[in-house]
Specification:
The chain has eleven helices and seven strands. The chain has about 300 residues and is an alpha/beta fold. It has one domain (about 5-85, about 160-310). Helix 4 links the parallel strand 3 (about 95) and strand 4.
Length: about 300
């Protein structure tokens, strides 16, 4: 028997559809913004931190990428990390809060977690492009009602916005596979690596876009979760080129958060959060998978070995 949604959720979902109709949005619209977590992420592999920033900023310019957001971990703000974030800041990109120590809210008390967020807020406000946006590490928003609602109340009291994502991926795991492979295989086939990276991310992007069309009846303004990493710096311009080839319009991150789903709040407790589209699908009693196979480490490792390591 199908469960009935709470009245306010039903009304909210109907509002999304009406907003789409009012703006005459076509369900085939493909609109996406880019966000980068964990900056300034450790740079002790293929590139130095400075090299990574060079490549990212050059790629943004070459691919005509508008303003993005770097969700930053203040515990990484050593001298080099501050210099790296300053470069993103000075290029006009948003610096936002991703905590001080990248904790799992499910493993801390509410008081401990709030203190970590506050510490990051204090340290990140040194950047002129700072915005009070918070991206939950691991996307986890609390495994108890006390934590979930406590953080919602805390963010509101601190004038913070919950900077959700709509499209998840495990690019960080591809980075791990790459960094490990390059140690023993310096002649790694970078063309094969690029194809694997782009194909994997596009597969996930298109999956969650289709899920959004099914669950909302329209195309939302998507927010893509990426990470500030070497593999991103190498291939972000190629990814954006492929997005545009497949009909996607890349927009500034602030524009993406004007979508009506920015006001959505699930009533569920989700120990592991699939992102905003996944929340809506779950509340719609969607019976399919909220976790695409491109978020499966075993699948990614198998494909990496087949498509990258075995190619000469």
């Amino acid at each position: 028997m199908r469960k009935t949604l709470p009245v306010y959720l039903t009304a909210m979902l109907l509002s999304f559809a009406l907003d789409a109709a009012d703006s005459e949005k076509n369900t085939s619209d493909k609109i996406i913004a880019l966000s980068f977590d964990d900056s300034p992420r450790a740079a002790n592999g293929y590139f130095s931190g400075s090299e990574r920033a060079d490549k990212l900023l050059k790629a943004f310019k070459q691919a005509d990428v508008p303003q993005v957001a770097f969700f930053s971990v203040s515990g990484h703000l050593n001298e080099e990390g501050i210099a790296r974030l300053s470069r993103y800041n000075d290029a006009g990109h948003i610096i936002a809060n991703h905590s001080h120590s990248h904790p799992d809210i499910n493993s801390l008390t509410l008081a401990e977690y709030k203190a970590d967020v506050k510490k990051a807020d204090t340290l990140l406000r040194q950047f002129s492009m700072f915005k009070p946006w918070y991206r939950f590490p691991y996307l986890r928003e609390g495994d108890t009602l006390q934590k979930r609602d406590g953080m919602r109340q805390f963010l509101t009291s601190e004038n913070y916005f919950n900077a959700y994502i709509t499209i998840n991926n495990y690019d960080w795991y591809i980075e791990n596979l790459f960094q490990e492979a390059i140690k023993s295989k310096p002649n790694l086939n970078f063309d094969a690596l690029k194809s694997f990276y782009i194909d994997t991310l596009m597969e996930g992007i298109n999956y969650y876009h289709q899920l959004a069309l099914e669950q909302l009846g329209r195309a939302p303004k998507h927010v893509l979760l990426l990470h500030e990493m070497d593999i991103t710096a190498m291939f972000i311009d190629d990814l954006v080129t492929e997005l545009k080839t497949q009909g996607w319009n890349v927009i500034p991150i602030s524009d993406a958060y004007s979508d009506p789903i920015a006001q959505y709040e699930t009533t569920r407790i989700m120990k592991y959060n699939p992102g905003r589209i996944g929340e809506i699908a779950k509340d719609n009693n969607y019976s399919g998978s909220l976790w695409h196979h491109t978020l499966n480490e075993t699948h990614l490792k198998t494909e990496f070995e087949k498509r990258v390591l075995s190619v000469q």
